[in-house]
Design goal:
single chain, alpha+beta, 3-stranded antiparallel sheet, rod-shaped
């Protein structure tokens, strides 16, 4: 008896002409989906930024203890490690007065997940500093 009652109730529900809730859902659903998509993209951008920051810090640390001898070696290491995240990234490393600084420039569109950042066409810069461990020339 219960399934037949459920069938009648669902059929009556589908025939109702009071559609205010349905119209509201149709109007608000794209807004909420866009908002959730934006939140997903922003969190992916910041997640990838933290991954890039870790790679830069590893490269700077290796340079400070002289596992890498030159700026170019550090840049190559960082760019190779970042390639799975962003194949279009570029790194610049400097060692001035005992402070090693590496800056990575990444297209914002490489960091997001759903493609919302393509509308902005900007680049994202991530910078990390490391004190030289005293092995300087």
């Amino acid at each position: 008896m219960l399934p037949m009652r459920l069938v009648r109730w669902s059929a009556a529900f589908c025939r109702r002409d009071r559609g205010a809730a349905t119209i509201e859902v149709i109007l608000w659903l794209p807004f909420f989906l866009g908002l959730f998509s934006l939140m997903v993209d922003i969190s992916m951008i910041f997640n990838n930024q933290s991954r890039i920051m870790r790679i830069i810090q590893d490269g700077n640390r290796n340079y400070s203890i002289r596992r890498f001898e030159t700026n170019a070696e550090t840049e190559t290491y960082v760019e190779n490690r970042i390639a799975p995240i962003s194949p279009n990234a570029s790194a610049v490393t400097t060692n001035v007065a005992g402070l090693i600084t590496t800056t990575v420039t990444v297209p914002l569109a490489d960091l997001d997940l759903l493609g919302i950042a393509y509308a902005f066409n900007n680049s994202w810069q991530v910078t990390a500093d490391q004190l030289d461990e005293g092995f300087s020339e």
